[in-house]
Records
---
Amino acid sequence: MEIRNLAPEWIPGAVELQRACFPPPFPVELLWHPEHLARHLEVFPEGQFVAIEDNLVVGSASSLVISEKHYQKHSDWDTTVSGHFLAAHDRNGSTLYGVDISVHPGFRGRGVGRALYEARKDLVRQLGLVRFATACRLPDFANSGFSDVESYVEAVVSGAFADRTLSPLLRYGMICIGVAHDYMDDEESGNAAAMLEWTP
Ligand SMILES: CC(C)(COP(=O)(O)OP(=O)(O)OC[C@H]1O[C@@H](n2cnc3c(N)ncnc32)[C@H](O)[C@@H]1OP(=O)(O)O)[C@@H](O)C(=O)NCCC(=O)NCCS
């Protein structure tokens, strides 16, 4: 398995991968179309990564750089990235912001997500940025029996409960700084997300 920057030839595979990773009830209108990924390559090619094994895209991760002022507002997904074409990208900003990450279900638990995160951290160092930040889905919240997202996130952070997405991201060294309500239309996560940061 190799981590590379996204290139035009990997776009169809990355689009297909995302559909395999975000099945219903995740809203299909939030998923990438080829023209979105093509635009990401124009806007910020260094921030787009894929994991390739046997000529197949088995993982992908998109990011952009946002300004400090914009980051500190901790807005919802759409406002933070300014839509699917990542119009909020600001090369003079402070924060590498994770837009999405996907690892094919058949390739999970083998360190692909960790390798994509290492590539993101290397980019933060290379560009001299302040931090890597993202907001993480909580797909096991809906069936967890917890009535509020804050208690759920606290339980996952403490290790008392596992979430199939938040738990891996915490293993990569991401620190939870709070909960974002109404982050995106995401039924399984109660429309919320855990706000995460890493500083070099
Ligand atoms: C989250 C995701 C990217 C993780 O990718 P992955 O390649 O399977 O993760 P890794 O193999 O790097 O595993 C990372 C760590 O998390 C742990 N882990 C993995 N799944 C876990 C689970 N369900 N519960 C608890 N810990 C888990 C692993 O043990 C590993 O720890 P270690 O490296 O310290 O031993 C992947 O599951 C995914 O694509 N999910 C669906 C899409 C999604 O929700 N994306 C996130 C949007 S915010």
Note: Residues 60 and 159 are 27 Å apart (CA to CA).
---
Amino acid sequence: MQAIEFKNVSFSYGSEDGRSEVLKNFSLTIKQGSFVALLGRNGSGKSTCAKLINGLLIPNEGTVTVFGMSTAEKDNLFEIRKRAGMVFQNPDNQQIASIVEDDVAFGPENIGLDREEIKKRIDFALKVTGTEGFRDSQVARLSGGQKQRVAIAGAIAISPDILILDESTSMLDPKGRQEVMHVVRTLNKEKGMTVIDITHYMDEAVEADEVLILGDGVVKAQGSPDEIFAKKDIIAECGLELPRSAKIAESLKKAGLPLGDGILTKESLSERLCELLRKI
Ligand SMILES: Nc1ncnc2c1ncn2[C@@H]1O[C@H](COP(=O)(O)OP(=O)(O)O)[C@@H](O)[C@H]1O
Ligand SMILES: [Mg+2]
């Protein structure tokens, strides 16, 4: 079964007038266990997609199903939200309790786990997100990045089958972002958690199994990072950038270095440079 399926989905926030549609006859499937980076310029409908997945929004036309359950059926929503955890960009919008530990406990308590399991989940989530140190702190007193870590801990504590991160590491510094994404990647690999990472960081997208670009209400491109970042015209048209190492490689190629194509990471860039050096 697919983890998520959008079938001919149309969605608009207000007027039914077709021109204001955010998604137009939009179809998409996301395989269970995959790590998908969802990209697109501001306003392209990424957050709308995320909210359609967990039933905060319902399509005007078409269907969204999560593990086969339609989001349009009210009776499915509790199960869908339990299985598809979501972390928003602004951590202030999802803080529930004033103390960190209670905030992280809210999800597991809400799905009716027993005391011992809840404690285990909280300990694990706080540990992996590096928030153990402020367990007893007031969420409101934390920095933006720390609040984002707590929000991610709250989602991890539910142990969802699908984790949707909607620009949820935007307030972290590069090192913090790497740490958190490493945790998410490990949960994806070891527990088979499906991840949808909505991000502006192309270096994060390079690490995904699959990259999806939204634009003009449809999926503009879908494929492996290698395939997607080779489509330079679509990248530019959709207001995106190349990953940093790819940009450096492009500049070096313009300056005359025969580096070849397909460089997306620091590792592949340094490998190619070393190969060149050996030939000199
Ligand atoms: N609550 C809302 N009411 C009306 N329009 C909205 C609302 N939320 C988003 N939009 C509009 O829908 C479009 C897609 O927004 P969004 O899904 O937030 O894009 P992204 O997350 O890719 O930046 C934008 O044009 C935005 O202005
Ligand atoms: Mg958004």
Note: The pocket of magnesium ion (ligand 2) is lined by residues 46-47, 166 (CB under 6 Å).
